[in-house]
Structures are given as structure tokens and as C-alpha cells.
Design goal:
With about 170 residues, this protein is of the alpha+beta class. It is about 15% helix and about 30% strand. It has helices at about 1-15, 35-45, and strands at about 60-65, 70, 75-85, 85, 95-105, 120-125, 130-135, 140-150, 160-165. Strands 2, 4, 5, 6, 8 and 9 form a 6-stranded mixed β-sheet that branches. The longest helix is centred in the first third of the chain and has 16 residues, at about 1-15. The chain is elongated.
Length: about 170
């Protein structure tokens, strides 16, 4: 019975995140088709979803190469890092692991347990990528790095960080 519920759920998330890549890829998977509201509604109402894993003490997420108010050129190279947790692909929920999302000119973090939207300002790196190249227009931009579990549920403000960058013309 449990296999009948988990297999469709897992299949949808694996296809939604194109789970075949490895860590150093610089592309994101935000251009994949969005899951329909009906699909996500059916998944959450018909499947048993595991609890959001706890954030280990001392865990933190950060941009390895960007400092607040840095002047950069487009495309902006972004290197993502986390301490005390493991980067993994989207899919099964595994304690002590997750993957990155970058919010461009959006909120500073999502509440813990909130699913990260998949749109032009919420970029998903569900293949376990640790680097990205962001084409940004000249001017100031706010970049937020948000870590989330295998089901794209935010670990909240504990595992997010925000910087402002100035993209030169």
C-alpha cells in the first residue's frame, strides 16, 4: 500500500527536477515545466509526506564567492556552500541533506516547511548543483540562497542568506 503511494510521488518529483545531473553543473532546472496545481494538490492530499528533517546545530548556507554590495558583471557566477549538511538531489527526503534554490529579487527566505515555488524568480538546483551562472540586467539585485529538503520544502531562515550585488553595465 505504501509503495503505491510513494512511487507516483517520487516519480513526479524526480521528473520535475530532472534528477540526472551532478554537483558541479552550472545550469539550473527552473526551465522545466511547472507542476500543475492539481498535481501538487493530489500529491499532498493522497500521499503520506515525511516530516521536514531537523536542521543540525551549526548548519549554515552561504555564497562562497559573493559578498554583500559586491560589484559584478553578468552573467554572475554564483558558488553555493553549506556547512554541517550534505548537498543531494531532489527526491527522497534524507535527514541532513537537501539542495539549493536562488531567489532573484524576491523574499529573504521562506518559512520552514514551505514548498519553494518554481518560477522565474525562484531558481531550483535539484540536480545537486553547487554553482550557477545568472544572467542579470545592470543595476542592483538581491540574491537569496535557500536550502530545502528533497521535496523542495524550505529549511527556513536558518538555512538562507541574502546578498545585494551591483551588476555593472
Amino acid at each position: 500500500m505504501l509503495k503505491k503511494i510513494w512511487m507516483p510521488l517520487l516519480t513526479v518529483f524526480l521528473f520535475a527536477c530532472n534528477n540526472s545531473g551532478k554537483n558541479s553543473s552550472t545550469t539550473n532546472d527552473s526551465t522545466d515545466k511547472k507542476m500543475s496545481e492539481d498535481t501538487t494538490h493530489n500529491m499532498t492530499t493522497t500521499a503520506i509526506v515525511p516530516e521536514l528533517p531537523a536542521v543540525p546545530d551549526g548548519a549554515k548556507v552561504y555564497f562562497k564567492n559573493l559578498k554583500n554590495n559586491a560589484t559584478v558583471t553578468s552573467p554572475v557566477k554564483v558558488e553555493m556552500a553549506i556547512d554541517k549538511m550534505k548537498v543531494d538531489t531532489a527526491g527522497p527526503v534524507v535527514a541532513g541533506s537537501g539542495h539549493y534554490h536562488i531567489f532573484v529579487d524576491a523574499e529573504d527566505s521562506l518559512a520552514s516547511g514551505t514548498m519553494v515555488p518554481k518560477d522565474s524568480t525562484h531558481l531550483h538546483y535539484g540536480k545537486g548543483q553547487t554553482a550557477a551562472s545568472l544572467p542579470l540586467s545592470p543595476g542592483k539585485h538581491k540574491l537569496t540562497l535557500q536550502f530545502a529538503d528533497g521535496l523542495h520544502r524550505s529549511y527556513g531562515s536558518k538555512l538562507s542568506t541574502t546578498v545585494t550585488v551591483n551588476v555593472k553595465k
